[in-house]
Amino acid sequence: MPIIIRPVADQDEPALSKICLLTADAGNSAEHLHDYPELPGLVYAVPYVKLPTTWGFVLEDTGTKEVVGYVLGSQDTRAYEAYATEHWWPPLAEKYPPSIATKSGDVYYTNLLRNMYTIPQSNIDFSPAHLHIDILPTYQKQGLGTKLISRALEHLKGEGLEGIWLGMDPRNTGARVFYERLGFKEIDGAPDANQLGLRFADWRG
């Protein structure tokens, strides 16, 4: 399959949301957990097209013109958090009140929109930049994740950064193996073992 990597664009929002949903349950589809399937993407994907300090790249199948994966992030997580707290989460919290939620996924996200977590300072001390990466299952295990992260690192090096971090679902053991193979390690001082950081000098992609 001919695959290209290109910068994310506004028109990719529906695809980002779909990919996020189809991988939101520890790497598996979360469709069964939602009556409002857009919620995972509104938290973990779409903001990286809309908010300041963000960047992103997508995998596009040139045969179908379908976006099949993404790597998204912010080069300044604290600035991202501050802007989202003021401008992004409040309208979503108003649109999606907890009273609408009956399925577990919707319960989780409608509450999260009202009490968004703050990134541990240990992560910020490691690097101001973070990322999210997701690829549709049928396109996994083809080296595309490594290529996506490599493209992200190229961009971030150009911004003068030396490292990146991510948080992961502890249930997704396959993802952890993937990250550690590329050089990600647990962050010293982090509150749990699911915060992984990469010094670009340690990249093994």
TrEMBL record:
Q: Which organism is it from?
A: Coprinellus micaceus (Glistening ink-cap mushroom)
Which InterPro entries does this one have?
Answer: Acyl_CoA_acyltransferase, Glycosyl_Hydrolase_84, GNAT_dom
Q: Name one GO molecular function term.
A: acyltransferase activity, transferring groups other than amino-acyl groups
Name residues in a coiled coil: none
Q: PROSITE patterns of this UniProt entry?
A: GNAT
Biological process according to GO: glycoprotein metabolic process
Protein's recorded name: Acyl-CoA N-acyltransferase
Highest taxon listed in the record's lineage: Eukaryota
Ranges where the N-acetyltransferase domain occurs: 3-205
A Pfam family annotated for this UniProt entry: Acetyltransf_1
Alphabetically list the UniProt keywords.
Answer: Acyltransferase, Transferase
